Amino acid sequence: MRVNLMIEGQESVTWQQWCDLARAVEAAGLEGLFRSDHYQSVAGRTERSALDAWVTLGALGAITERIRLGTMVSPTSFRHPSVLAKDVVTADHVSGGRVELGLGAGWHELEHTTYGFPFHDVGTRFDVLEEQLAIITRQMTEERFDHHGQHYQLTGCEARPKPVQSPRVPIILGGSAGPRAARVAARFADEYNTVFPSPEAVRDRRANIEAACRDAGRDPLPFSIMTGALLGADEGDVRDRAARLKEASGAEGDLDAWLDGLRDEWVIGTPEQAAERLRTYERAGVERFMLQHQLHDDLDMVALMGELAAA
Predict the structure, then answer these.
(1) Domains of the chain: which residue ranges?
(2) What's the start-to-end Cα distance of the chain, in Å?
(3) N or C: where does the chain have the smaller number of CB atoms within 10 Å of the terminal CB?
(4) What is the pTM of this model?
(5) How far apart are CA 216 and CA 277, in angstroms?
(6) Which residues neighbour 16 within 8 Å (Cβ) at sequence distance 6 or greater?
């Protein structure tokens, strides 16, 4: 199974914790380490901190040897596309060709207001996303080009160096596979990712992506999911982690009822139980998993993810 660790970096993950997590991912035999790209807690906890995603990934590329590294996902509103492309290509060189770019339109309005980023209506955000994708892909693959769009103007752009990976750094787009998202993915993406889906939702969304790819005259995109994970060596271990996570999230009420409410979408249980859950998703068409670990100081669960991937 292609299992990756996904970390919500805006929830006060320190640099030392990033180093520990990356080394744990390599030791566990997981495929890669992906991180969110937020400047502020999405749980409304403004006292929490966030290190910049691409600076972090570039630094992790220098201290790791094998694992893939990437964002899930970078919002277009944080960076000019030329800056983002340069960040990504730099990290690609530092890592020896091991990074992937997850890109999205942005959704967390509070962090945009707080940091002074523009937060457009949904249609405009998708327009910006398409334009950034066009610029980023051309900077990675073309020797010289002009771009005269609604939001960006580039004249005689000669972006060097090109990525280590050929023809370019892989691009992941995602969402719920609505009509416009599917068309954009079919045009630009190397993979489509959807978040916290049921197996039934996977089938429907994958079908939408496959239809868009047929219309674009290309093969279907690889399909991946990001979802929460809560693993334990046994049921008692799972409940102990669940209690820690429930407390950290500020949720109220009965632990078992809270945990049961996660089971439809999360991957929960022992490595063997979780592996069977992932096989259900594989039968629905999922080819890669980004498992969100919200207790980021718990390296033992990363090791359990390695057992899951090997099961």
Answers:
(1) 1-30+222-311
(2) 8
(3) C
(4) 0.97
(5) 33
(6) none
